[in-house]
Amino acid sequence: MVEFQTLYGSHEAAHQKAVYPDSAVPSNYLFLIPVSIPDSTYQHLLYSPLSGTLDFLDNNAARHIKHLMEGGERAKMNSQLDKDFWDRGYLFENPDAELRQAKMLYKELLKFNRDLQRHQIAIIPTYTCNLECVYCWQDRQKLPTRIMDAQTVTLAFKAVDQLVEGIDPDQVDICLFGGEPLQADQQIFDTVKCIIEQSRQRNFKLKAITNGVNLREYLPLFGDTLDVVQVTLDGPAEIHENRRPGKSGDFWKIIESIDHAINRGVSVNIRVNVAPENLNSISELSKFVEDRWGLHGPQLYLSPVKENNLSNQCNGTTSIKEILHMSGSIQMPNNINLMGYRAMRGVEQILQYAHAPLQRFFSCEAQLNFWAFDPVGDIYVCYDACGNSQLSVGRFLPDLKIDESSLKKWRSHSSLNNEQCISCAAAPLCSGGCVYIEASQEKHSCDGLMDSYPIALSYFAKDIYDIATRGSSETVGFICS
Description:
Blueprint: H1 2-7, H2 9-16, E1 25-26, E2 31-34, E3 44-48, E4 53-57, H3 59-69, H4 80-87, E5 91-92, H5 95-116, E6 119-123, H6 150-163, E7 172-176, H7 186-202, E8 205-210, H8 215-222, E9 226-232, H9 237-243, H10 250-263, E10 267-274, H11 282-293, E11 299-304, H12 320-329, E12 336-337, H13 342-353, E13 370-373, E14 378-380, E15 394-395, E16 401-402, H14 404-411, H15 435-441, H16 449-459, H17 461-470, E17 476-479
Parallel strand pairs: 4-17, 6-7, 6-13, 7-8, 8-9, 9-10, 10-11, 11-12
Antiparallel strand pairs: 1-5, 2-3, 3-4, 13-14, 14-15, 15-16
Helix pairs in contact: 6-7, 8-10, 13-16
């Protein structure tokens, strides 16, 4: 496993030779979380986002590491307990040694993820939309109204060819994005047709992010080329149409579109943009989806409403605490996916695969293999930035030209390079805040993982404890005094 190979090389070598430093300091990146495990002496969970290790501690071990974390003294390294903490990556000889390890992990895992992750290419036929969602972050007053034409599509794909040169076509996804890319407009229809043809010629996989209102009319155009479609439903009919107003009855048009997509073999994901206004309706929506499409139907992908939405009608985002409280008050349906919540992405990996996430000090598509092409010829590396030409990283009209300085600001953004983040325990889990918010609103943005990660780990502590008990994971274990 990459994280253990890169982090534990020096620790394991020292352990095998029974050689430890005279003293050591605790990692900057530790969470010590009280948990409730029935009939167990292990009531604390220690997690290192840097090493990716989690260990359940008895009370004495928890008191000892807490004392070290609070700056009580250096670990003397003359007890088995300190040696266990060292072997698991919770102690370092000094802060500089940890920083070197952090930079090495960042470099190696960034390359690993760029090599592993698919290349996501968003094509934006238009920034216009046929809905007026109350929480939309896109400022339609400032967005270009131009619709991409056939020549622009051709030049966009010419630029894509250059950017993914040498990449297996099977690793490239073309994603239709907007605005709303599937509208009842002949010019948009013709543009989408061109995008489909260009994708088919290259054997690229095709996806679409759509509100679903006109999806049914577009399905015959896609033929068998549409791999996945994401459609948003924010609740049962009345709640959905209040939050995403268009024409009366749009909800049922969307449902019929999903029916037809599923019947054609298209994989459908349903996104739910969660805010206080629709939080309590999610269980009803979940039951509706299961009743209509069965246990193996679409998943509900829950995601908090963006804090950068432009409307005052939305009362802000929902926290992971509220979501987990909701799921605790009902039996969590099988069709609900919480991966839209940052803390849950990492916890889900632990629960499913018994290892921590393979990212360190980065977490966003803007740092990996994402590109977006818009109707006026601008190129972006962030969905939210699309349409704000000051945040573009290049042009593809008339030819491909990347501004390497602008691109570097996005691709190399990291909590390692941010003085406000570098000493935060959650720094290895995030990228040092949102580049888009920092660039567009000129303020630092925090992902809040320092608060949300312990909440999520505590909530699922019993499940993680069961993994440790089975002894099948190098990542999860026990340390006792």
